[in-house]
Amino acid sequence: MMAATRAWRRARRSHAAVCAALATLLAGCAQAPQSGAAAPTPPANLPPSAGPGALYSIFHRPLQAPPQGSVEVLRLQGQGAQIFRCESQAAGLRWTYRLPEAELRDAKGNVVVHHGVNLSFEHVDGSRLVGEIVDHVPSPDGDSLPWLLLKTRVFGEGALAAIAYVQRINTVGGMPPPRCEADQLNQVLRVPFSAEFVFYR
Fold this sequence. Notes:
Layout: H1 2-31, E1 72-89, E2 92-105, E3 111-116, E4 120-123, E5 128-137, E6 147-155, E7 165-173, E8 188-200
Antiparallel strand pairs: 1-2, 1-8, 2-3, 3-4, 4-5, 5-6, 6-7, 7-8
């Protein structure tokens, strides 16, 4: 009789343990994210018309927007090259950034602005900007130029005379290899790139 009682008690404890384990498992399933759950809401201050790739900013800090009250006045598509020079540095031979060379075109394909040394922008009417980087974030794909916010200084009268800020977004390409070789010392490398440039007053 005693043996039967002990066996019954062991069975009851085993059953309770199984029930507890099942309860824990079911609770975990109830708390797990559902596959059909809504995606996180993207930040409200993504760069304008940044395109699908801009959702990267859900996981990375978005590019700083121009100050409140800034108004977009011009949006151009740029294409050209980023120019680098193989130089000896403390960490070894590296491709060192020198300048950009690009043509910025309007929606009709007309060249409107030339982009060059010192992050400058020269309009075909002669007005000119020189940019200073005030913010930058990595490109969504990690293999293209960073996105930039530039504060500008204006030279001359014309279409760019009122421009205070420029964003470079939606970049493709433009990044050099991580290092150069001894036989490339002092050589120049041109890396093709494209980007969207948004001008604000």
